[in-house]
Amino acid sequence: MAFSGALSVTDLNDYLGPSQVCIKPVEAPEVNEKASGEVCVHLTKTEIAIDQGNYYESNGQRARTQLETAEISLNDCLACSGCVTSAETVLIGMQSIQEVQRELENPNQRTFVASISPQSLASLVSRYSYAMLTNTVSIPALFKHIAHALRRMGFHFIQDTSFARHLALREHQREFFERRKARTENIPNAAQLPMLASACPGWICYAEKAHSELLPYIAKTKSPQQISGVLAKRYFDSADRPNGVYHVAVMPCYDKKLEASREQFELDGVKEVDCVLTTGELHDLLLNAGYDFTQLEMADDAIPRQIPNASQHDSSSVQWPQLLQEPGTSSGGYLFAILHAVLDEYMLHSPSAKPSLELRVIRSVDYTDFVLRSEDGENLFKGAQCYGFRNLQNLVRKIQRTTGARNSRSMGRGRMVRNAGKEDAAPYDYVEVMACPGGCVNGGGQMRPPSSSSKEVTQGDTDQQMQGWQGTDKSWVRRVESAYWVDVNRRAAPTAQADTSEQTKAIMRVLHDALDGELHTWLADVDKIAKEVEDQMSSTKLELFRTSYKGVAAQTNGLAVQW
């Protein structure tokens, strides 16, 4: 049998465990020495046994010693260049339920703030609705109920990350136009297009360790998690609790723990996010505190929407708009925000124009091109939605072709994209990149469905690329996706269950609503609030909302072995 190219382990699965070179040096116990200084060397055969989940070392005699669990810290993981994304399987002890509980038991005159992602809320809604055999549980109701439970545990303020995400989207748009101007005017040494989304730490980790040549194209705008940390540390200080803010973020992804631990996400030595819990860990934390999700009795306090004044630093008045339903995708709507901004700019100069949108599915709906054209066929914008490492590897090769970027590491030669025509060769302006198939609603830290849940595949469903993390399936991911959309009319993402032309029309309807409709009015109202906050921190906004990334020195990578 002839092979046209090398086979790499990185081609085989979206979910990559620790590399063979993910090694932390182990300190050997001190050796015994005789009085004469002679070293005692024991050549007894050693065996490792497993008993009820514990590991024991035996030297062939009756006695055996229980082995301690090896631990790899976040700093150890970040310092290693041997893996792609190993946070799912690495033993992380620095950010855990136990850590949060210890901090709550020792408040030390601090303000405790929790920020919960909308994707986490959607996952919890799906799990609780299934458990209670009802579809009446909503995200707003569950959020209020969880907030009440967390306050009883000792948290002072509970917010979701949607307002921080809105700030991130606005900064994302500004950065995009800066880069486009740099390309148009050929400004030397300036960041240019294509611009790649920066909100997914799994993708960032992969780029830093495997494709550092792409780092100049990754957006410098921080993720909603980190901007929520900026807001918490800047606005929630209290004179009654003078020892600062302890900020916990609840996220759908284990890699968010790695993101929070980065040195560049500290200001004057203070972390923006002190601890990250996954959706499943929040569930366990609540259960440990006696939370009963089968009794969804709502707290009396309504979800507040008043906006703080940064000059006051009065925590009693600090609350953000909550549960903002951004249009676009359930991963945050980054591509839609850029597409909307480009279309808005074009329509201001050509109000009578009728531009068109074309969708092109590359491999599955997880990798879809979006091309916005003027009436005469000129490309106004080309972007893509790219989810999952299989699709991401094809994206990397395309970016390399269109930009000339070269990977000096020559890691894993995966399959090339076949039949790359003229349209495929056109460069991207922007790509919404997420490491998980299906995006953030399918993160590795999300709730798993009950073992008895149905695993039926919708008849006619051809999207075979949609997979779930350990124990989930396509139907469950769709359930979470459905729960995410409190307002389904704002969804503007392709699906495998509808005709491409119909989906294109649906996305254009959302775009036109954002230009001149109820959605436009809603966006304008939220933008007004966001601008007030930005103006309050205008002198330091770039420092607070943007970051930078750097490549990690290459080592031998067991995952890239050629066969």
UniProtKB/TrEMBL annotation:
Protein biosynthesis listed as a keyword: no
Compositional bias segments (type: Polar residues): 449-472
Positions of the UniProt region annotated as Disordered: 444-472
The protein's name: Cytosolic Fe-S cluster assembly factor NAR1
Organism: Malassezia psittaci
UniProt keyword terms in alphabetical order: 4Fe-4S, Iron, Iron-sulfur, Metal-binding
Taxonomic placement: Eukaryota, Fungi, Dikarya, Basidiomycota, Ustilaginomycotina
Keyword Iron-sulfur: yes
Function: Component of the cytosolic Fe/S protein assembly machinery. Required for maturation of extramitochondrial Fe/S proteins. May play a role in the transfer of pre-assembled Fe/S clusters to target apoproteins.
Annotated Iron hydrogenase large subunit C-terminal domain residues: 112-444
Pfam families from the UniProt entry: Fe_hyd_lg_C
Gene Ontology molecular functions: 4 iron, 4 sulfur cluster binding; metal ion binding
Family from the record: Belongs to the NARF family.
Gene name tied to this protein: NAR1
